[in-house]
Amino acid sequence: MHPLDNPIWMALTTTQVNFAETCRLARRFQPEVTLLGAFEQPSRPAYESLACLQKGPEPTALFLLDAPDLPTGWSILETVPLLQMVCEKFIRPSATAESCELTEADVPQMLKLVELTKPGPFGRRTREMGTYLGIRQQGRLAAMAGERMKLPGYTEVSAVCTHPDFLGRGFAAALMTELIDKVIARNGVPFLHVRERNERAVALYRRMGFRERMTFHLAVVHKPQTATRAA
After folding, report:
1. Structural domains of the chain sorted by starting position, each given as residue range(s) with its CATH number in brackets
2. What are the pLDDT digits (tens) for 86-95?
3. Which of 169, 175, 221, 226 is the most buried (most CB within 10 A)?
4. Smallest Cα–Cα separation from 9: which of 54, 63, 58?
5. pLDDT tens digits, residue range 145-197?
């Protein structure tokens, strides 16, 4: 199996194991980092293991190869097609902008921008997963993008979002260019995930050299009555 066929699991068992919470057949990122979780193979015992990690009603976001088939007692909060795109030959855009690296002090503004633009699971500690860059305009965080999942040879570009007041200025492309340059300098391959229906974003990524590799089922799930938390 290619490592990108199960990127969350690969990240949590290799480069980002320091962020992992583990129970038997399931792993997830610490929930304040991100809601992403995974198992090597979906099965009833794997879901039971995931239930041990969940606290109360908190959800987990899974990338599944097939449509979700949940055991009894589980609920789906959201499920959408999710494109995985890989950039093996970067096409540099002309867009440039003055950016800054975002710090802990920027987290409240980052969370507000995420709440407004809905780029995907993002938590108070997501910034710790890699470099996050932002562009400020008129004293506001106008756009941001960063590194999320990391696994051997690959780094995910994520949380690419622009405030509606600042669309059309090339900010997303400029931030992505900086991040892609950093990944390539480390001899890595950039990849990303985007909702299939987000046509504006998909078009931008294609122009920058990203190509569709596969489609996941993004399934945000939870089990209201969880099992006893296990070590």
Report:
1. 3-81+217-222 (3.40.630.30), 85-213 (3.40.630.30)
2. 999 999 999 9
3. 175
4. 63
5. 999 999 999 999 999 999 999 999 999 999 999 999 999 999 999 999 999 99
